[in-house]
Amino acid sequence: MRSFNTGPAGLVMMVVGLLLAVSSAYTAFAQAGWPRLLPSILIGLSLTAVGYSLVARARRSRSGPGSDGPDGDEL
């Protein structure tokens, strides 16, 4: 089993994704050109989701072996 901490990278991806999604959404709705900026919004939301996944994985690995969740089950 490989062990690496991806928390900082995930946090950066979440911040960049949120900034991209929010700025694209603001620009899209302010100029009424949302179909043109929809790909940027979706890419930003995707980056946010992947970053959150990396942060959650880093937190689970930090909590120690054998503790997958609050009740001991992973999913």
Overview of this structure, please?
With 75 residues, the protein is an all-alpha fold. The protein contains 2 helices and no strands.
Helix and strand topology:
Layout: H1 7-31, H2 34-62
Question: What structural class should be given to the helix and strand makeup?
Answer: mainly alpha
Helix proportion: over 70%
| Mean residue pLDDT | 78
Report the major sheet: none
Listing every helix as H and every strand as E from the N terminus to the C terminus, the arrangement reads: HH
Number of strands: 0
Cα Rg: 16 Å
Quick overview:
The chain has 75 residues and is an all-alpha fold. Helices cover 72% and strands 0% of the residues. The radius of gyration is 16 Å and the shape is rod-shaped.
Summary keywords:
single chain; 75 residues; mainly alpha
